[in-house]
Design a protein that fits this description.
single chain; 236 residues; alpha/beta; Rossmann fold; six-stranded mixed sheet; binds adenosine-5'-triphosphate
């Protein structure tokens, strides 16, 4: 179980007057399910890239339990990510020419975190759970909803402590989007995974424990923090 502690984070890009993301302090508990929302350009993808180590932290601290991401080289961040993070992106990033099962097994095979036979059994189990009945079907012949369900199975196959999804329902129609969201929440819930989802989808957001809203790179609302404040006030 991994929790996040972010302090004094600032992400700036060249030609941008203000930081794309500025977060003085933010904590996410192990196993917490968090939505990150906000208008276009508010910093959601930047947030996702920082917490997964896809983007290097140059200013401030981003710590997942004992691992300080800002002090790791790119190669070490890549290794840490393949051991601990399952990713679901808007554009699935599946490999055409490979079957659903082969796609699901790919990140696990590369990171070698589990023996191949175990990985394959887990891959088949997850594909069944996401209702993919033909594991041998080439992914390029699947519907978009099916492709995203394969991507969900792939994100979970190594039993990562953290699952991060960037707009996982955005390129799907409403029904397929809800089906994917349900599966993501269900499977992450069963595994006790810390879940961070950037999304505009109201029906997804309202089912998570907490909502962090970003505007122009700043946290303008944090329902988790509000809840904690209310609990503290009650204790007085
Ligand atoms: N590599 C980069 N170079 C320069 N500016 C960048 C870069 N990446 C992001 N930005 C800028 O940082 C800001 C935040 O972008 P980000 O992609 O995080 O927003 P977002 O909330 O995910 O938006 P959307 O909902 O449209 O995907 C934007 O102003 C964007 O143009």
């Amino acid at each position: 179980m991994l929790g996040l502690s972010m302090r004094d984070l600032r992400v700036s890009f060249r030609d941008l007057e203000k930081p794309a993301l500025a977060v003085p302090a933010l904590d996410i508990r192990p196993g917490e399910k968090v939505a990150v929302t906000g208008p276009s350009g508010s910093g959601k993808t930047t947030f996702i890239n920082i917490v997964t180590g896809l983007e290097r932290t140059r200013h401030g601290s981003v710590r997942w339990s004992d691992t300080e991401l800002s002090s790791l080289s790119e190669a070490r961040r890549d290794r840490w990510r393949s051991a601990h993070v399952g990713l679901v992106m808007q554009e699935f990033y599946l490999c055409p020419g490979l079957s659903a099962l082969e796609n699901v097994l790919l990140p696990g095979r590369l990171s070698r975190v589990r023996p191949v036979a175990e990985l394959k059994a887990e891959g088949l189990r997850l594909l069944e759970r996401v209702e993919i009945s033909r594991p041998g079907q080439p992914v390029e012949t699947m519907s978009r909803g099916q492709m995203q369900r394969v991507a969900v199975a792939r994100a979970l196959v190594t039993r990562p402590a953290i699952v991060v999804a960037d707009e996982p329902t955005a390129s799907l129609d409403a029904d397929a989007g809800i089906a994917v969201a349900n599966l993501l929440l269900q499977l992450a819930g069963e595994a006790g995974t810390t879940l961070i989802v950037a999304s505009h989808e109201k029906r997804l957001i309202e089912r998570l424990d907490r909502m962090i809203r970003l505007e122009a790179g700043q946290v303008t609302r944090d329902t988790g923090a509000l809840q904690e404040m209310a609990e503290r006030d009650e204790a007085f």
